[in-house]
Amino acid sequence: MKIINGDGVGSTLTAWMERIRLNAHPRQDLLLNEILVARAPKYHPNIVQHLESYIWGDCLWIVMEWMDGGNLTDLVTNRYMFENEIAAVCREVLQGLSYLHGNGIVHRDIKSDNILISSQGKIKLSDFGFCARLGKSRPQRHTMAGTPCWMAPEVASGEPYGIAVDIWSFGITVIEMVESKPPYFSQPGRATMMLKLKQRPSLQNPERLSKTFRHFISCCFELEPRRRATADSLLKHPFLESTGAMPLSTFLQPAFSIKNQ
Predict the structure, then answer these.
(1) Which residue range is the domain that position 216 belongs to?
(2) Is there a single domain that holds both residue 187 and residue 254?
């Protein structure tokens, strides 16, 4: 499907349309979240673009920007990622998180499934159903939301939380890029128990990673949320510079060529 893009005459944007039956969806408030966040008036290159939405009969139709490479999960489960490749992905994800957090939005479900990629080297955050807005009247949230293996300890323990939960989930996503899956992936119950006991996740073979990379990951797992790194501080971390984060297209295009053979 081709949608005319307002940036110029004749320019087009490939899009996809999702149909959701409203009477079969248990949480219609999450659908509203998805639309409100994705259609924010200011476009950001690391946020999947919402183009339009319609209600027809008992169905909601959402038209979104099409990302032809699927999600990051497809990449991490199909090939080994080098540190400079991981740094390149981290930079894009952190830029998206910086935008959300700067606008008082906490994503609450950062994981590889919700990071979409294109064969042209674009990486964008998606799936804003669990997003929550923070502000002066409500600076923190209490609702348990997200996916157990990626969940921050303050969420699992039922404590008030803010944007720092996204940084913990981002750190777990970085571990995914290293090990192809998050810690305790086959034991989500144990993952939740470890979080309630305030246990940091661990790498299987940390000695294989550079010292700078290990420090970058550890910054995501400060148990005290106020001491945890922010998206902006991580964007300035030496890991994103020392590894020489490469252009995404240089490794994404070959990766998708292998995947689609």
Answers:
(1) 72-259
(2) yes
* pTM to 2 decimal places: 0.83
Backbone torsions φ then ψ of 12, nearest 5 degrees: -130, 160
Give tens-digit pLDDT for 107-161: 999 999 999 998 788 899 988 878 888 766 666 776 777 788 898 999 888 889 9
Is residue 109 annotated as part of the catalytic site, yes or no?
yes
Q: Which residue among 7, 58, 109, 166 is the active-site one?
A: 109
Tell me the C-alpha to C-alpha distance, in Å, between residue 95 and each of 16, 207, 241. 24, 28, 15
Residues pairing with 161 in the sheet: 141
User: Cβ(203)–Cβ(178) under 8 Å?
Assistant: yes
Q: How many CA atoms lie within 13 A of 193 on its CB side?
A: 5
Q: Say whether pLDDT at 244 is over 70.
A: no
Same-domain check for residues 185 and 79: yes
Residue 64: its H or E element: strand 59-65
Return the number of other C-beta atoms located less than 10 Å from residue 192's C-beta: 19
Instruction: Say how many CA atoms lie within 13 Å of 252 toward its Cβ.
Output: 22
176, HSE (Cβ side, Cα atoms, 13 Å): 27
Q: Are residues 112 and 24 in the same domain?
A: no
Report the SS3 class of residue 49. coil
Residues facing 152 on adjacent strands? none
Q: Per-residue pLDDT for 173 more than 80? A: yes
The tokens describing 173, both together, are: 């996503």
**Which of 3, 207, 201, 175 shows the shortest CA–CA distance to 90?**
175
Residues 26 and 85 in one domain: no
Across 16-55, b (16+ Cβ under 10 Å) vs e yields: eeeebeeeeeeeeeebebbbebbebeeebebbbbbbebee
Q: Based on the fold, state whether residues 121 and 247 are members of the same structural domain.
A: yes
